[in-house]
Hints:
Blueprint: E1 2-14, E2 17-26, E3 29-34, E4 41-47, E5 52-55, E6 57-62, H1 75-84, E7 87-92, H2 103-116, E8 120-123, E9 145-147, H3 161-173, E10 178-180, H4 194-200, H5 203-219, E11 224-226, H6 232-240, E12 247-251, H7 253-257, H8 279-290, E13 297-298, H9 307-311, H10 327-336, H11 342-357, E14 373-382, E15 401-411, E16 414-418, E17 421-422
Helix pairs in contact: 1-2, 3-5, 5-6, 6-8
One zinc ion binds next to loops.
Amino acid sequence: MTVDLVLSNGILIVNDRETVQSVAIDRGKIQGFYKHGKEPDSRKTLDCRGLYILPGLIDMHVHLRDLNQSDKEDYESGTMAAAAGGITTVVDMPNSDPPVLSREVLDKKIKSAVSKRFVNVGFYAGIPKDIKSFEVSMVPDILGLKVYPHSPLTKGTIYDKKRIQACLGLARKHNLPLLLHPDSSNRNDIAKNQEEFFHIHSCESELRSLQMFLDAKIEYEARLHVCHVSCAATARLILEHRAEHTLTAEVTPHHMLLSGGDFPHSDGRAKMLPPLRSPYDTKMLAQALCQKCAIDCVASDHAPHTTLEKNAPFLEASSGIPGLETLLPLMLTEVFEGRLSWIDFLRCCCSGPAAILGIPNKGILTEGYDADIILVRRQERYISGAEFFSKAKITPFEGRHVLARLITTIVGGEIVYHDGSFIIGPGIVGRVPVRKS
Ligand code: NCD
Ligand code: ZN
Ligand code: ZN
Ligand code: ZN
């Protein structure tokens, strides 16, 4: 037989060990694994000597904006950033303008993403103020429901016990995870100085918010996913509730690798929600991920804003940083420097998010699965925001030393990106919307 593509002689991770093998791809799927020299005939072969062959990353927390915020990012620049960052599937948050609270807006986002995509794109929806008006027709095309208790998508919604229970009930009814941005501050809490900003969005606030949802969850069992855990105490609380395996959690590379004290905060370069915490928190988050397994996945929380919005003085600057093009090199540097095992890397960046969201046939390199694959070289380099494909180029990781370079991105068996350029145009590869099984 002749297969479409062979990735020959690359480094594959099997049982936490590096082995040299070839991967055959046919009709968009992984056809099989072969010893070098035993590969089937192929229409195309990529010599992968010295390159790692890894599953494309699944980033379950991104904001690709588009529609009325295309100055910040759109599906084209956002999915180009994903492809160039080794991320073959992204899941887009609903706090867009307009927000995803109806089938109509979801359709607009799907339509735009279909024509501009370079990778697979999935979606979340928000929950309308009047929960009874939730449009059930959205359910097949979304992967979860998202809540922002500190900054609700609908004006004047208060996340008291009753509202939280109703949201959990809705998620359970439709067998979707409820994704939580844990923050119990009030929309009207306006910081007058930097210290107040950090105080309003404190670890106590994060912890209190999660506790409220956990309390409600006892009576109203549903799957709860905690977004961007940033504090040691929050990770501990999650660990204590681990027996209830309907609780999952994510951490961002920035909350794991950077502390607030490392930055002067004169502008918005390192401003995001939740804010950067103490070195102690970063240490405990890394531990929660590697040793305690309290954290199921790593997500970028790619939250692009314009240069103007980020260069403003700290208090006026927008919260959020780009992350699609730093996630892979940062996490692989943790692997190459011995702080993260290959198993934990693959679990947190690939198979973990697929399992949380119920995405079938992705996140693992195995026969019959989708050929969403990346080729990576171990190479010393420095992060440079100017090189990003994202419209957002200001990153707190500017100048950071990393040990990995993405060489090739393959989506559904097609080479999308290779050596700094895009091989095929937008709207050709990738599934939109990504659906659960
Ligand atoms: C996000 C954004 O800009 O949409 N900002 C951020 O600082 N993380 C919102 C969010 O994820 O809470
Ligand atoms: Zn958030
Ligand atoms: Zn509990
Ligand atoms: Zn976010």
